[in-house]
Specification:
Blueprint: E1 3-10, E2 13-19, H1 24-28, H2 35-43, H3 47-62, E3 70-72, E4 78-80, E5 85-91, E6 94-100, E7 105-111, H4 116-119, H5 135-156, E8 167-169, E9 178-185, E10 188-199, E11 202-209
C-alpha cells in the first residue's frame, strides 16, 4: 500500500500521509463504510475524490480506527468517538490525517501553484514577502502560511474567523520546518505550534494547540 510517510510528533500524536495511486476498486477492499458515508461516496462525481475518501479510511485503519469511529459536527469538523483528536486533508493525489490523544490538531496539504499569488492579499500581508529572492520562494512561503492558517481554522472551527484579521503565523525560515502562530478572536487568544514539510511540489502543514499554562 502506498503509505507515503508517517511522522511521529510525540508518543500521543502521529501524522500519516498517503499517495493515492490505486484504483477505486482496490481502495474499496477491506474498507467498511457506514450507510451515510457510502451515500457520500456514491454522490461524488469525481473519481479522484472517491479514491481520496477511501484512502483516508486506510489511513484511519493504520491508527486503529474504522469509518464508524468518525463523526462530524455542525461546522463540518471531524471527531473521533473515543475523544481523541483528528484532522483530515486531501489535495490531488495526496491525503493525510493527524491523530492525537492529547492535543487539538489540524493538518492541511496544498499543491504549490502560481495562483496563490493572486489570492495572497486575502489571507496575509503580501508586502511582507517582497524580501524573498524569487517568485518560487514566495509561492513556497505563501503555501506554508496558507496551509498553517487552514490547519488552525480546522482546529478552531468557528464562524466568522478571518484568515487575514484573526490568525497570525509568525515568520520562519524554510530550513526550520516549524514556527508558531496565534489566533485572537472575540478577545480570546490561543497559541499553536506549526510544523511543515515539502515533497513532490506539495506542502503539508500541521498545527498543534498549545496547552494553557
Amino acid at each position: 500500500m502506498p503509505l507515503y510517510k508517517t511522522i511521529t510528533e510525540s508518543n500521543n500524536t502521529k501524522i500519516y500521509i498517503w499517495k493515492v495511486t490505486e484504483s477505486e476498486a482496490d481502495l474499496s477492499k477491506e474498507v467498511v463504510l457506514t450507510a451515510h458515508c457510502q451515500d457520500r461516496v456514491v454522490a461524488m462525481k469525481s473519481e479522484m475524490h472517491r479514491r481520496a475518501f477511501l484512502s483516508i479510511r486506510h489511513l484511519m485503519a493504520l491508527s486503529s480506527y474504522e469509518d464508524k469511529d468518525l463523526y462530524y459536527d455542525e461546522m463540518g469538523k471531524p471527531h473521533l468517538r473515543d475523544g481523541n483528536h483528528i484532522s483530515i486533508t486531501h489535495s490531488h493525489e495526496f491525503t493525510a490525517i493527524i491523530v492525537s490523544k492529547s492535543q487539538k490538531v489540524g493538518v492541511d496539504i496544498e499543491k504549490q501553484r502560481d495562483k496563490i499569488l493572486k489570492i495572497a492579499h486575502k489571507f496575509t500581508p503580501i508586502e511582507e514577502y517582497r524580501t524573498l529572492a524569487n517568485t518560487g520562494a514566495i509561492i513556497r512561503k505563501l503555501t506554508i502560511v496558507w496551509g498553517a492558517k487552514e490547519s488552525l481554522y480546522k482546529i478552531y472551527a468557528q464562524n466568522g474567523l478571518s484568515f487575514l484579521r484573526h490568525i497570525d503565523v509568525h515568520d520562519f525560515s524554510f530550513q526550520e520546518g516549524s514556527t508558531t502562530a496565534e489566533i485572537l478572536y472575540k478577545g480570546e487568544l490561543s497559541q499553536y505550534a506549526v510544523k511543515f514539510l515539502e515533497f513532490e511540489g506539495f506542502t503539508c502543514v500541521y498545527a498543534l494547540k498549545k496547552e494553557e499554562d
